[in-house]
Amino acid sequence: MNLSKLQVEMVLITSNRQFNQLNLKRLILAIICVVIFAPTIALAQKITEYGKPDELKGVTKIFVSLVYGGSVELKDRDRIIKEIEQGKKKYKIPNLEVVDRAEDAEVILIYSEEVEGEVYGATTTNSGNVAHTTVRQRDRWTGKGIVVKPLADGNQRLIMDSTSSQVSFLQNAPATSFGKAFMKAYVKANADTYKKKE
User: Fold this and answer.
1) If you average pLDDT over every residue of the chain, what do you get?
2) Contacts from 36-44 at CB under 8 Å and sequence distance 24+?
3) How many other CB atoms are there within 10 angstroms of residue 143's CB atom?
4) Predicted confidence (pLDDT) per residue in 34-68, tens digit
5) Is the Cβ–Cβ distance between 159 and 107 less than 8 Å?
């Protein structure tokens, strides 16, 4: 009987360690979120007006910017630009240009991304009087993109936003999804000008 009490105590100690590790992960995630969203909040304070995606009509110069922190990388900017270039070919859009400086752009695409672990399943096995639970975790990448129009007074007008997540390599990267969402809105706003390539 003492042996099973010892086994139960060992399981409880193990469970407490796993619980403490999970709380530590949550604390680290909270700190990361503050670091990631602080620049986004500062950016949001510059937004003083709200517009609509149809304001993309006639836009010819865009700039793609990243909010560093979290898991955003330069390749995310490349993914967004790749989607824009593919959309230009698909819809025969000759005069949409990705510029190298924000000052030269009519609208700015701003993208940020974070990765967090999530629990998505648990398996419990019994061995005598002891139950052992194994928790499965995976990473979720969540991307947030906004499109703003700079105003003369230094503030910004929000034109559109987009959020997407990825948990599997079979899904589009969130940056790719933001590029697709921008092109969809751009083509819709300019529907009378551009037609899909046959």
Assistant:
1) 81
2) 36/67, 36/69, 36/70, 36/112, 36/114, 38/69, 39/67, 39/68, 39/69, 39/112, 40/67, 40/112, 40/144, 43/67, 43/110, 43/156
3) 27
4) 555 554 444 445 788 999 999 999 999 999 999 98
5) yes
